[in-house]
């Protein structure tokens, strides 16, 4: 018996020694298996695939890939991540408290004007511009007061990031006016731009735009004044905000991983179709990932370098996530604090730095919370209107049947990997948020950060998981606007997969650079070609499916009509009157809109029309009775059709124009 035990022990030691000598090849083999199984899993997650068995097969393949990748990571850990950053003392503070007090005072003035906490009738009325200047001044002074100075600029690196950022800006600004010439749920913010123009004393923090602060509409007003009351003016602020997320992600990727990963991530986000698209919509959702990514980046930088300024900027950025859409309001603060707590041992943040971060966050976020409370508004209006109601959860608790929720949770995952959105069309297309051909890199990146859960990069897995769990609580959880908050995490995971898989395969450094460069360039070229070609064409078709005739196209064609024009849309299924008036009011002053059922367009209706002003009639194809009636009463120019190639001819309304100089018959 003893001899057998010695033989087994000897055999085990020999096998272990043999495997250790060949760990190089074992790591390569397990990595190849992981790549193969991830590729197979992506094949079972074809766009629009709802086959349950395919999904189960994909999960089984991903589990195998995860195990293989875990072995590869364990054998290659020194090749993947740098050692834990050394412990530095917190940078000294050089008595900038006076600046911090000044910043708090500026923010307090803005808060009191918006919230009227003291009910003292003070401060006197402030213009929106003054409020914004005070808000920015308060943030700058607070950063200086809590963090001091000490920022060092690497000009060569800044130049590289600047080139990538300019490319991203160009992609987001190109054909901004006519790529999809219709509002995509953007009218609420555009309408509030007009309110600012009429009354510049509106509070920037008032939760008046469907429960959101008016800050975004104020910024939108600046670009409207610059470019005019058109789609370029309305959407340009999102172009700028979306573009700024590229250097923010570069900074985060560099602090979590290394410079090559940061370059890859910045390039991939610059051409990521969903991010390009949402950067071209006049919606406040796009601001959330900018400030959330900055908060994570500055905190990661603070932990590595122990600078007060980084802790202060992390807290300020986190506070600014409360000023736009509520996705950022709900996701980023708890995620950062969980990440912070989970890394207390491994990453060793300085307790004084953490206090600076928390204090900065509270000071910056407080104006929003106080304004919402004093104006008796809901802090999370979209969650209250879109989340499953209490009866849904009561039913689950009573019956114990969680199948419906689990199905909903599954679709939150499928929205990323395979399922396009439905119900409303914000992005549309035929893919999930990550195109099928790029999915293997996403899976590989996720596996790499999960197997290094003790590294700061685990943030990315928690970021995506929190997004999936959060959207599963909403009734309509396959809308891309719900996922804008996790776009940077998805791209950074893809970058991690692309950056470190060649390293796991033990490619020489020169070959790694070539492989990464070729793959990045291929992904970039392909995704830009897809978005500006196939995707936009499909999006324009999908977004018009709800109506037999495109009344919004008619309104966009009416933007240059002279003042005093009366616009008549004579159709039973073209546009809602209230929505139509909102659209035309944004584009033009002193024009009127009337939406008329064809059966109600009678001689009596014509007799009641205003006698002054030009008249523009939009009618359905082949509506001969209406056309005959118009010809009997007006001298008409036309028919004219849409100049926008994005509107299918069968959905266009024919325009007939009656100049005011022509008398009615």
Label this structure with key terms:
3 domains; globular; 665 residues; mainly alpha
Describe the structure.
It is globular, with a radius of gyration of 29 Å. The chain has a five-stranded mixed β-sheet with strand order 2-1-3-5-4, covered by helices on one side. It has helices spanning 2-21, 23-44, 52-75, 77-80, 97-115, 128-147, 155-173, 187-198, 215-227, 231-256, 259-270, 273-278, 287-305, 308-320, 326-342, 351-374, 381-386, 390-399, 403-417, 439-450, 458-471, 487-504, 509-542, 551-556, 577-587, 603-607, 624-633, and strands spanning 566-570, 592-596, 615-619, 637-640, 654-658. Helix 5 runs parallel beside helix 16 (351-374), helix 7 packs antiparallel against helix 10 and helix 7 packs parallel to helix 11 (259-270). The chain is mainly alpha-helical.
Number of domains: 3
Count of separate DSSP helical elements? 27
Q: pLDDT average, as an integer?
A: 89
Shape, per Cα inertia axes = globular
Secondary structure layout plus pairing:
Blueprint: H1 2-21, H2 23-44, H3 52-75, H4 77-80, H5 97-115, H6 128-147, H7 155-173, H8 187-198, H9 215-227, H10 231-256, H11 259-270, H12 273-278, H13 287-305, H14 308-320, H15 326-342, H16 351-374, H17 381-386, H18 390-399, H19 403-417, H20 439-450, H21 458-471, H22 487-504, H23 509-542, H24 551-556, E1 566-570, H25 577-587, E2 592-596, H26 603-607, E3 615-619, H27 624-633, E4 637-640, E5 654-658
Parallel strand pairs: 1-2, 1-3
Antiparallel strand pairs: 3-5, 4-5
Summarize this structure briefly.
The protein has 665 residues and is mainly alpha-helical.
């Amino acid at each position: 018996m003893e001899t057998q035990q010695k033989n087994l022990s000897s055999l085990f030691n020999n096998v272990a020694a043999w495997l250790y000598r060949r760990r190089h090849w074992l790591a390569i083999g397990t990595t190849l298996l992981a790549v193969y199984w991830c590729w197979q899993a992506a094949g079972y997650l074809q766009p629009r695939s709802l086959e349950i068995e395919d999904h189960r097969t994909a999960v089984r393949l991903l589990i195998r890939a995860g195990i293989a990748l875990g072995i590869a990571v364990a054998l290659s850990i020194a090749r993947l991540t740098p050692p834990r950053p050394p412990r530095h003392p917190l940078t000294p503070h050089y008595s900038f408290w006076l600046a911090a007090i000044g910043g708090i005072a500026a923010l307090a003035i803005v808060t009191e004007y918006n919230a009227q906490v003291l009910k003292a009738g003070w401060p006197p009325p402030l213009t929106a511009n003054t409020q914004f200047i005070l808000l920015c001044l308060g943030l700058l002074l607070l950063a200086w007061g809590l963090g001091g100075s000490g920022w060092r600029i690497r000009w060569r690196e800044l130049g590289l990031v600047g080139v990538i950022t300019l490319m991203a800006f160009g992609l987001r600004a190109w054909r901004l006016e006519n790529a999809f010439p219709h509002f995509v749920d953007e009218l609420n913010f555009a309408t509030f731009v007009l309110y600012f123009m009429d009354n510049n004393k509106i509070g920037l923090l008032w939760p008046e735009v469907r429960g959101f602060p008016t800050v975004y509409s104020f910024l939108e007003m600046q670009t409207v004044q610059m470019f005019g009351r058109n789609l370029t003016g309305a959407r340009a602020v999102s172009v700028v905000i979306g573009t700024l997320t590229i250097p923010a992600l570069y900074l985060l990727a560099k602090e979590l991983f290394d410079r090559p990963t940061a370059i890859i991530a910045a390039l991939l986000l610059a051409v990521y179709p969903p991010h390009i698209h949402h950067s071209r919509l006049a919606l406040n959702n796009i601001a959330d990932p900018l400030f959330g990514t900055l908060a994570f980046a500055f905190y990661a930088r603070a932990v590595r370098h122990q600078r007060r300024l980084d802790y202060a900027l992390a807290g300020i950025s986190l506070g600014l996530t409360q000023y736009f859409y509520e996705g950022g309001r709900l996701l980023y603060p708890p995620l950062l604090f969980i990440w912070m707590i989970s890394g207390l041992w491994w990453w060793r943040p300085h307790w004084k730095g953490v206090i600076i971060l928390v204090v900065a966050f509270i000071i910056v976020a407080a104006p929003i919370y106080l304004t919402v409370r004093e104006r008796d508004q809901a802090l999370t209006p979209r969650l209250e209107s879109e989340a499953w109601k209490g009866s849904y959860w009561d039913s689950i608790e009573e019956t114990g049947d969680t199948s419906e929720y689990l199905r909903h949770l599954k679709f939150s995952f499928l929205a990323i990997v395979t399922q396009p959105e439905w119900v409303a069309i914000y992005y549309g297309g035929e893919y999930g948020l990550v195109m099928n051909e790029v999915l293997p890199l996403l899976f590989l990146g996720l596996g790499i950060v999960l197997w290094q859960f003790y590294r700061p990069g685990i943030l990315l897995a928690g970021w995506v998981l929190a997004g999936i769990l959060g959207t599963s609580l909403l009734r309509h959880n396959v809308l891309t606007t719900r996922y804008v908050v996790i776009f940077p995490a998805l791209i950074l995971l893809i970058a991690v997969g692309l950056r470190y898989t060649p390293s796991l395969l033990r490619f020489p450094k020169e070959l790694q650079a070539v492989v990464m460069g070729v793959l990045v360039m291929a992904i970039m070229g392909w995704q830009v070609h897809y978005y500006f070609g196939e995707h936009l064409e499909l999006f324009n078709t999908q977004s018009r499916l709800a109506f037999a005739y495109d009344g919004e196209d008619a309104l966009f064609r009416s933007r240059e009509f002279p003042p005093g024009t009366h616009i008549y849309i004579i159709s039973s299924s073209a546009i809602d009157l209230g929505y139509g008036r909102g659209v035309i009011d944004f584009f033009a002053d002193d024009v009127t809109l009337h939406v008329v059922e064809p059966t109600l367009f009678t001689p009596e209706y014509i007799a009641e029309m205003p006698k002054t002003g030009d008249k523009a009639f939009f009618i359905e194809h082949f509506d001969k009775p209406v056309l005959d009636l118009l010809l009997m009463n007006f001298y008409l120019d036309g028919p004219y059709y849409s100049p926008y190639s994005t509107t299918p001819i069968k959905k266009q309304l024919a325009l007939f124009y009656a100049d005011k100089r022509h008398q009615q018959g």
